[in-house]
Structure prediction request, 432 residues.
Amino acid sequence: MTSFDSIEALFSPPDPSVSQEGSVDPMGLLVIWQEHARRIFHRKLNSVATDARALVINVLHHSAVHAWLEAHPSHEGWEGRFDGYAGLLIWSEDLLAHAFLELEQTGKPVDSLGILGLSKLKGVLATQKGHELIPLMNRGVLKSQLALGYTGRYKAAMIEMGFFDVQFARSPENEAVWGEIEQLITTTTPFKRYRDAVLALLEVADPRKGQQYPDLPSDLREEHEQAVEAAFQTTSVPEAWRHVLRKQLGLEDGAAGGIAHQVRGLLDAGQPIDPQAVLQRAVGLVEPSEQQKLRDILWLEPVLAHVDWFFDHLLASNGKPVEDLAGPAQRVRKFIASQQGLGTSIHIPRLEQLWAMLTAPGTDRDWIEGFVQFHQKTMDERGGITWVSIGPGGLIKQQYMRAGAAQAEEGDLPWRRSYYVPSVESMMRVLR
Prediction:
């Protein structure tokens, strides 16, 4: 009979790359740095909503779906307006993937980079009899498409830009934003053609039955494919749209505008984009009230980098006594002492808890034990797995093996976080 003491040996150690949030954030630093970045970008940019063409596609889909629902207020077949709206967005996204696939297969010169669901659709069609198109929020080609497709990736950003609320409803303020956008659509012939082609295909969407793409009305399908080819042959965005999208993304003024200006200059000069250098130079380009947002990050990141650095040393010290970490601990404590207090202007409980742990008095061993306890509490709060602990005899105990080792860097530690600067770079490559 297998004992409970030995049963652990039957299972592989947890893989940090596929487990829980703590697998990439064992000290709970994510909420700290993201809050600082969001003060600058106001959730209009994030790490996944980085494709300007995809943003335009979203705008066109929302324009078509809203127009169709305004003309069909009974939303027959759906439980309510939101279900109809979400289902038709999924329908529009799946039709786009089908159109790109058709254009690829016929040798048309289209750039399919960043077309969400296209790879998955190819797999579905290769292994199944076909793909069933149903305009329901849980029936997209992508699993959890309402969260992972165009709509999901850009929904929070578009809410912040003033396009609609969480239910896709428009207030008078939202309509004012759409006024300028609809004028742009009307005057951009390829985009208007695509929006109208989507609108026409919404007429045959039915949530009560599935349909195969080849069985859709051939005239509507062919017009849609031709409109896709005309509008999205490349990933570029028409010049008339660039200023408007930069403005909607908040990249024309404030701290975000200063960052975008720096990024644009580096792109034009063909130079690499370093987040630390970009933020440092952007400080001098913005008004004092916005400068503080940048200064807060310039203070914060070296602190978080030291936390990461020491945690790496913990992971590299499996089986070693706590005393072996006295040198790295002293380096971190000396750096923290040099900061002369919590140097950020916003109240974040998690940061204040972290700072209290980092500045706690006591011996180096006391400090190391407090650091490990902070990590354990972080993981316990999430229901996650502790990465490292201090076992009997004061030996460091790693819960699973991890490749790599801590680096004993001299001088300033490198930044570990980019504060959405790469997202600005992705957008400005197209919108500059």
Observations:
- Strands lie at 132-133, 211-212, 388-390, 396-398.
- The mean pLDDT is 89.
- The chain has three domains: 20-41+295-398, 52-240, 251-292+419-431.
- Residues 52-240 form one domain.
